[in-house]
């Protein structure tokens, strides 16, 4: 109540002085920020639910329920376990761009994503507990203002001024006016009985909003782009679509088995819904290079000072199916980004990219994003080299230091998956003369191809990482191998195949011919 009164008093005082600061915030929120997140409401709410759990816990719970039978047009719920809603969270929800989280503390750290809910509802509601031992929702329980709420608010701050309600309604964003809720809706109560601590309730504004909620739910649960793949704080997500009195929950779990770990590199098997299995490689970003890239981003403008916290903790992960490779990969910032930009590998690549406000796309030509892509290339290279080495050791009976279970998986599963990917080029998409361009994607392709095919050492990869030219990257890799005779009289036009035609060796004849045709 105090927050709503303060905002209303400030709005009316500004109007009296001829200023329209509150209206500016309202316009930015409703006409600029919320539309930027079109189609991303569920993604934004899910990331907030994920961030409420302790880092690297892996046992967090989230429930998503779309109940088309409740209310006039249906209600969408997103509930989570973990930490209850605190005062800093409450302040952040009522503000714009003032997140309570740093980039290293969670997925959502821009302080604007919650504003996306206005696409589906006019008055979002939140219910939380005071402490983990609470039996009922007794903490922050409130909704944001409806039209009629501005009438009583005007009576509180400007009694005897009948025009005040209209002024507040026209100039003050509803998301700046939290209204306490004393009676928790009956449909919210069972979430607490199931151990969840915070519930976001969105009464859908109309039939179009209901259809959009259904579409987003289907998109989120698409098997082709598993949303839970990189949500390492969660162990279980339950999704229920209830219509006509029917609706059974679909449960999405995430099971992790370690295959291999060494010097900042992890290879894991991830088992998801319907026994979908993927092999994931995770690598830490080099601290010195990370701080250098972040400092450059802060100086040039894209990054804020709080990104410095990522310098010592950023990691990059690449996951590929344990079966047939994907026809097309997908970039993630913990949750799936949009279909564009194109993922440079035929798998799922996750990193804390600097993106647009909705996290759909990212700027490729930034030093921080460049570094993350380079780290992904190096991770693929190291994983391939490690898997081949383990496979060779196991075949010779020399890998005695590894536990038997890990040895077997490292030598067979990891080697077969990662080395096998080289033959299908899942980790290194083709870069043809028609599409090659100065980009880190091209350099990444070159380094992946070189190591997967020819085992180029990491020192070569670091040289590749220093250039944004695919042609120069290929030359660096080629020079590291030295001149060899070429058995192929007519090299292909595809630059990425310039090495492949020579079998296990690189050849200046092939390279010169291929580069000369671009």
UniProtKB/TrEMBL annotation:
<dbReference type="InterPro" id="IPR052957">
    <property type="entry name" value="Auxin_embryo_med"/>
</dbReference>
<protein>
    <submittedName>
        <fullName>ATP-binding protein</fullName>
    </submittedName>
</protein>
<keyword id="KW-0547">Nucleotide-binding</keyword>
<dbReference type="InterPro" id="IPR036890">
    <property type="entry name" value="HATPase_C_sf"/>
</dbReference>
<keyword id="KW-0067">ATP-binding</keyword>
<feature type="region of interest" description="Disordered">
    <location>
        <begin position="385"/>
        <end position="405"/>
    </location>
</feature>
<dbReference type="GO" id="GO:0005524">
    <property type="term" value="F:ATP binding"/>
</dbReference>
<feature type="compositionally biased region" description="Low complexity">
    <location>
        <begin position="385"/>
        <end position="401"/>
    </location>
</feature>
């Amino acid at each position: 109540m105090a927050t709503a009164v303060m905002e209303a008093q400030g709005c009316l005082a500004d109007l009296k002085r001829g200023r329209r600061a509150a209206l500016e915030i309202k316009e930015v929120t409703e006409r600029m920020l919320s539309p930027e997140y079109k189609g991303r409401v569920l993604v934004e709410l899910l990331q907030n639910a994920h961030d409420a759990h302790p880092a690297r816990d892996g046992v967090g719970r989230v429930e998503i329920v779309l109940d088309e039978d409740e209310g006039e047009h249906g209600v969408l719920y997103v509930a989570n376990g973990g930490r209850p809603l605190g005062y800093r969270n409450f302040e952040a929800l009522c503000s714009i761009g003032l997140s309570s989280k740093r980039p290293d503390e969670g997925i959502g750290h821009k302080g604007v994503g919650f504003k996306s809910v206005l696409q589906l509802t006019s008055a979002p509601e939140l219910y939380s507990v005071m402490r983990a031992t609470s039996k009922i929702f007794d903490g922050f329980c409130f909704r944001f203002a409806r039209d009629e709420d501005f009438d009583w608010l005007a009576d509180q701050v400007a009694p005897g001024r009948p025009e005040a309600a209209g002024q507040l309604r026209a100039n003050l964003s509803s998301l700046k006016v939290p209204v306490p809720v004393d009676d928790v809706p009956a449909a919210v109560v069972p979430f607490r009985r199931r151990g969840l601590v915070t519930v976001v309730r969105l009464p859908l504004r109309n039939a179009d909003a209901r259809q959009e909620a259904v579409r987003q739910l289907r998109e989120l649960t698409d098997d082709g782009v598993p949303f839970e793949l990189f949500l390492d704080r969660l162990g279980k997500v339950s999704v229920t679509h209830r219509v006509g009195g029917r609706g059974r929950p679909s449960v999405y779990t995430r099971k992790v088995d370690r295959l291999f770990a060494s010097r900042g590199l992890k290879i894991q098997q991830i088992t998801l819904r319907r026994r979908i299995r993927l092999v994931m490689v995770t690598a830490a970003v080099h601290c010195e290079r990370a701080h250098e890239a972040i400092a450059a981003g802060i100086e040039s403008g894209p990054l804020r000072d709080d990104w410095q916290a990522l310098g010592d903790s950023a990691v990059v992960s690449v996951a590929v199916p344990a079966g047939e490779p994907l026809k097309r990969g997908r970039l993630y910032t913990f949750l799936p980004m949009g279909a564009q930009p194109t993922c440079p590998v035929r798998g799922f690549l996750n990193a804390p990219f600097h993106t647009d406000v909705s996290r759909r796309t990212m700027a490729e030509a930034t030093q921080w994003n460049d570094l993350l892509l380079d780290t992904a290339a190096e991770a693929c290279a190291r994983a391939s080299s490690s898997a081949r080495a383990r496979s060779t050791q196991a075949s010779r009976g020399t890998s005695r230091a590894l536990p038997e279970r890990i040895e077997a998986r490292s030598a067979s599963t990891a080697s077969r998956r990662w080395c096998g990917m080289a033959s299908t080029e899942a980790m290194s998409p083709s870069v043809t003369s028609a599409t090659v361009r100065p980009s880190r994607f091209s350099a990444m392709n070159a380094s992946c191809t070189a190591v997967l095919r020819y085992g180029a050492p990491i020192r070569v990869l670091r040289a590749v990482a220093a250039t944004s030219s695919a042609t120069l990257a290929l030359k660096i890799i080629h020079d590291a191998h030295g001149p060899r005779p070429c058995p192929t009289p007519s090299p292909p036009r595809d630059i990425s195949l310039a090495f492949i035609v020579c079998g296990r060796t690189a050849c200046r004849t092939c390279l010169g011919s291929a580069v000369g045709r671009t």
